[in-house]
Amino acid sequence: MSESGPVQYYGVSARGRRVPQGERVFVERNGRREPLKHIVRHSPTGFSWGYAGSGPADLARSILADYLGLRPLEVRSGFYSPGDIPEIDGGLYQKFKFAIVAHLTMSEPWIIEGEVVGAFLRANPPRQVCPKHREPITPGDPLGYCIGCDDEAGRTVA
Length: 158
Fold this sequence. Notes:
Helix content is about 25%, strand content about 15%. The protein has four helices and four strands; from the N terminus they run βββααβαα. Strands 3-2-1-4 form a four-stranded antiparallel beta sheet.
């Protein structure tokens, strides 16, 4: 999780109205501010907040990915397609959207402290995936193998 020091996520609207490319969202670490990378899944037009729609879903997904230091897959991998983030897909970012992002005020600046993101993730841990293949760990496998590890080793999963 965000080990590069304190982190804040904040957003601003243009005079309380949506700007053409959506609202502006930034991440700040160690006094350095940069735009939050939009990892597109639901809203090609950009981030939004204050309701439970597609822009807020992408904002939630992008914040969690940034905080965890994750990037979307670039190629198909087993169960996953390019653009997927195996560790947080499957509803985790939707929970974050409903718990945090949907409650932000649309027309006012907001800040989400890294501690809030960390507390959410402690209460809702990301999916455990194999670091080599980024596939889910095979349930009940004490060694933490995924389907890719099983295939490489010639093991069959019962």
